[in-house]
Amino acid sequence: MGELKTAHGVVATPFFMPIATQASVKTLDSRDVEELRAETILSNTYHLLLRPGVGIIRRAGGLHKFMNWPRPILTDSGGFQIFSLAKQRKIKEEGAIFRSHIDGRQFTLAPELALQIQKDLGSDIAMVLDVCAPYPCSESEAKEAVRLTTLWAERSKSPKLRKKKQLVFGIVQGSVYKDLRLQSARELVEMDFDGYAIGGLAVGEPRKKMFEILDYVVPELPERAPHYLMGVGQPEEIVEAVRRGIDMFDCVLPTRNARHGLLYVSRKKTVDFSPGRSDFYEALHITNERFKNDFSPIDKNCSCHTCRNYTRAYLRHLFSAGEPLALRLATIHNVHFYLELMRKIRAAIRAGKF
Amino acid sequence: MGELKTAHGVVATPFFMPIATQASVKTLDSRDVEELRAETILSNTYHLLLRPGVGIIRRAGGLHKFMNWPRPILTDSGGFQIFSLAKQRKIKEEGAIFRSHIDGRQFTLAPELALQIQKDLGSDIAMVLDVCAPYPCSESEAKEAVRLTTLWAERSKSPKLRKKKQLVFGIVQGSVYKDLRLQSARELVEMDFDGYAIGGLAVGEPRKKMFEILDYVVPELPERAPHYLMGVGQPEEIVEAVRRGIDMFDCVLPTRNARHGLLYVSRKKTVDFSPGRSDFYEALHITNERFKNDFSPIDKNCSCHTCRNYTRAYLRHLFSAGEPLALRLATIHNVHFYLELMRKIRAAIRAGKF
Q1: What is the number of domains present in chain A?
Q2: Span A307-315, mean pLDDT?
Q3: Distance between terminal CA atoms of chain B?
Q4: Which residues of B touch A313 (CB under 8 A)?
Q5: Which residues of B are less than 8 Å from A295 in CB distance?
Q6: What percent of chain A clears pLDDT 90, i.e. is strictly above it?
Q7: Is the domain of A25 the same as that of A139?
Q8: Which one, out of A81, B23, B160, B252, has a CA that is 20 to 30 A from the CA of A194?
Q9: Cβ separation of B31 and A56 shorter than 8 Å?
């Protein structure tokens, strides 16, 4: 349990960042996200570069003003998104060349430009541009990804590339190869970043493998700097990752699952954080027939706007009838579940019960 | 300027009802609608009968509880929706036989059942089942519609068919035929309903024709009872209809237009309600290129949640990027515009300036 100082306030760790890919946590406005007491949100350089374009956000006075969000924002560099473009991108030493998934326009994103854009966006935490290898990948492929990631990280260190008070994080790569992961971590730590992310995980590797990697990578990272596990994960994965020293998380699961009617429900008011327990919650498909006449809230232990005001039967009806409100009410609940889990984790840490 | 007493409070007239067809004002939750200070909302018997089914809403404790809405609800009888089904419905003396637009299931809706359902829904204002003739239609077709509408209205008068304190309104039909309209109005007034709706308008007839019909129908209706013009309309049509003695309105325009990015903007802080003026507002297509870098609110005279917190550039981005939030923020603004127009009309009436 620690804290992270940003240009928009101090955030208690460990924390979870809801994803606002295109400057909106899907279906929610900034007031909704504030009411959920989200500490920090994540937005994507890649998506904002394509739409609306960085110029518009700069002229708006930065991303905070553009979306009217007063608290910290972390911007991902776009490495992961560009890697996901598969055939539509080429990685060269100078940077990544890719075509927009929207209109096919060609872009070249050099590590310097990725930082410059995040400076223009005015995010609190900027990520260096990395090369995210796929899973599975050969050792030589992973090695090349680490080489470029380190090279690009070095080129990202210039103070000119960051806004005043903006934090810049490096990203550890190396796939499932221990030597490469350790090398990547040591090379980045050498450069003294404000924080360290572990990237290239939750891309299809077994869960056990991911924890194994955390077990040997986290000890390489300086304790005073925050450790961010990118793109993770299921609630029980977050608990296990916190146990291994992770301070920051982001994941599409709560928001994406909500839009598919998959809702998280706590099993008990309090969570037992003993190792290996994942029975503290279940996920229910609200569209199921059995909720037709269920006039209880989604989760009787939940204090979110949705659970305080609406029933499972109403939610099920909204989903069945294709009412857009379904998506927002479900998103509010799932994001609340994740943020509440983090609050419980922090309380348990404070109480020495973690 | 008057008022209407309902089981869920007194409503000042004239007022506009946002449409919650399927127990949700599209994209808004009940708190949003409360914050907009909507006095009354409209929901549809036809749609609720099909989905989620009346049994579920009855078991929920009525429509107010089901959707967590504390103020008055008017339920339409389904006549208009069934008429819109065209080939998929048959009108007989006993009632309307139709197939669900969702799954083709066959339903028979008799006037008694339409009221019984609205009793189960627990709405504050129930509408009798009417026969809504298309436009254009022959005089003999319109005559038959009036005959059945009167017959069905008589069968709707039984006190058993209404909930305690529930108001029941008759619906004047007769298409564009003056004699038929007058006959329909007189026959309904004879039956002494709690209010009178004028139906079968805004279905394609010229606007001039609609006002002509109001000019001779409204004087037939008792002054002490509210007059409701169904499905109308554009802001300037509402103003002109109030001038002709209409107290209640509903229309899909503000909500539907919002979802298409068409937003209402006031031209001035105050509205000149002199006859024939429709220059008090304009409608802008927020997706237009020219709003890309427009960091002003949609309407600088507007106090809605959207205008207080977000810019045209942000709204345009959300629409362009396909973000679901766009629909809600636009809906909030447009519904606010309509409700604010009604507040201005009421204030003008109170001040003797209408």
Answers
A1: 2
A2: 98
A3: 10
A4: 52, 56, 60, 66
A5: 59-61
A6: 90
A7: yes
A8: A81
A9: no
pLDDT at A1: 59
Helices (H), B156-234: 178-191, 207-217
Count other Cβ atoms within 10 Å, centred on residue B127: 30
pTM of the model: 0.97
Pair of tokens at residue A200: 């290239």
**Alpha helices, H only, B1-124:** 30-35, 45-50, 54-60, 63-67, 79-84, 111-121
As a whole number of angstroms, the distance between CA A99 and CA A84 comes to 12
Domain of A122 in residue numbering reads as 2-251
* Mean pLDDT score of chain A: 96
**How do residues A19-52 score in pLDDT, each as one tens digit?**
999 999 999 999 999 999 999 999 999 999 999 9
Report the largest interatomic distance among the alpha carbons of chain B, rounded to a whole angstrom: 60
Touching check for A327 and chain B: CB below 8 Å?
yes
| pLDDT tens digits along B167-182 | 999 999 999 999 999 9
Minimal CA–CA distance to B156: which of B200, B191, B108, B121?
Answer: B191
Which is the catalytic residue, given B120, B247, B250, B299?
A: B250
| Residue B84 and residue B121 in one domain | yes
**Distance from the B28 Cα atom to the nearest Cα atom in chain A, whole angstroms:** 6
Q: Are residue B241 and residue B345 in the same domain, yes or no?
A: no
Cβ pair B79, B122 in contact under 8 A? no
Pair (A121, A262) in one structural domain: no
Same domain, A334 and A191: no
At residue A277, the pLDDT reads 79
Residue A269: the pLDDT is 84
A-B Cβ pairs (cutoff 8 Å, strict) = 116
Q: pLDDT digit string (tens) for A249-269?
A: 999 999 999 999 999 999 888
Inform me whether the C-beta atom of residue A23 falls under 8 Å from chain B C-beta atoms: yes
* For testing contact with chain A, the best of B288, B317, B327 (most A CBs within 10 A): B317
How many angstroms separate the Cα of A90 from the Cα of each of A82, A87, A108, B341? 9, 8, 9, 56
Cis peptide before B233 (omega within 30 of 0): yes
